[in-house]
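Re: weekly structure request thread

Next one in the queue (557 aa):
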Amino acid sequence: MQIKNIQTTAFNDQRPGTAGLRKKTKHFMQAHYLENFTQSVLNAVQEKAAAVDQNSELYNKPLIIGGDGRFFNRQAINTIIKLALANGYKQICVAQNGILSSPAASTVIRARQASGGFILSASHNPGGENEDFGIKYDVENGGPAQEKLTERIFEISKNLTQYQIADIPDFNLTTVSTQTFANGAKLEVFDGLNDYVNLMQKLFDFDQLKALFNSGFTLRFDAMHAVTGPYAKKIFEEILGAKSGSVINYIPLEDFGGGHPDPNQVHARKLIEFMYSDLATDLGAASDGDGDRNLIVGQNCFVSPGDSLAIIARHMQACIPVYKNGLLGVARSMPTSQAVDLVAQKLGIAHYETPTGWKFFSNLMDANKCTICGEESFGTGSNHIREKDGLWAVLCWLSILAYQKKSVQNIVQDFWVEFGRNYYQRHDYEDLELSKANELLANCRTQLPSLIGKELGGLSIAQADDFSYHDPVEGSITSKQGIRLFLKNTTSTIGRIVFRLSGTGTTGGTLRIYYELYDREHLDCTADEILQNLVLDTRKFLKLKELFGKEKADIIT
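Done, posted below.
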């Protein structure tokens, strides 16, 4: 094949965030943009490999490529294949039709001992020509690239002058096949379901779950026209025996059917309304664009992500065979509900609080420090892979329900009786002027020492800081990860407020405010009832109406 060296001009906006590079689709489609970023990744990965071993076998190990099927997915995959071939990769493995969930990609990377992989997704962001696109690089452990590597990618991208690309036609990705080139390189189009489905069968007692469905148990799983549709159809209906139609919106579409593939109370509203109706199934669940998030809801019972993480951690040793010897530890992102900490304390195991970003969990899991981890943004996972895993979380809940023989609502209520309840909400203020949002946080940081004793919602601020994380594995320090205000009543600390800017959007800035209050006595209130005074006082304190014209949050989850 002919290799072309294409002269290019560097872009200055290709810094990957916590989950790769995300931009508007048309931004990615501009001349040289995708090629520049891909070449920057390949250069950085080769540098890293050479620094460890000058005789690195990087190019002889498989490179995995797949995505969530959104608009521009197949064209981008073809471009990445051509760059990888031109840069010397000998084994390139692409999922059939380009469909590969993030957890499945991690599974394949680990199963095939690959050098890493490109995941083409903007996760839970909407898709389409006028919406969002993204690329993430997962390293050899199947987890997201660490900050050192992503920063090096960015540095290379700012100075890139050329890229190498194979001058060959686009590939047919619709059929499982293997193509060998004259230089010995191979392109394999593989079934993106097999490795992941096989792993789930090893982790869970599928005979027990089949018996659950044979007993008349009902499920509604909303794939949101995203990547988990084929996986859910295969696992829940074909293997486990859930009745036909249990999995809805299962065909991946380039624009997710015009919906927003984020499984929360806002974008999965129809599923939640169904679960609060007379037609409700025993369990309702949903996943997002790339399959790494999950929503759990029972009959008349929404399960918050923090409670879901904690409940899985509480029951997984008894209910899921692979975890029968106990948990190494638990971890959560800093803004996530502290409910799982209470479980860890009862089990006598370590619990870790990390910045947002799955790479921090990957470090802990690689060092055998934790088994299960989760984020408040509906992400849950374990050490079976190095990504969060939406279908794994649903299978956990099915296992708990099969073992406990109780409803979702009863399992949740039993948990609150045992541990108390962490009332929790996240308020998102979207599309803010980024400079003003950064200025707001900067001003808050300067005020931190003077906030002690200030009252919000009838509670006193006992402590205020800007979260900094010292990684216990690699020793790195990650600072400015979110401002925390710890609240106390007359006797003890009972809650907190956290606010930080999100890094997952493609336009403007998103300010996220997290509210949490712990209660052992009042277990049946709504979060609105418990948190409303705190929310009102915090909005006034931050002057959100004056600064941004926001009367209330755009999205509350």
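The chain has three domains: 3-192, 196-419, 421-556. The mean pLDDT is 95.
Next request, please.
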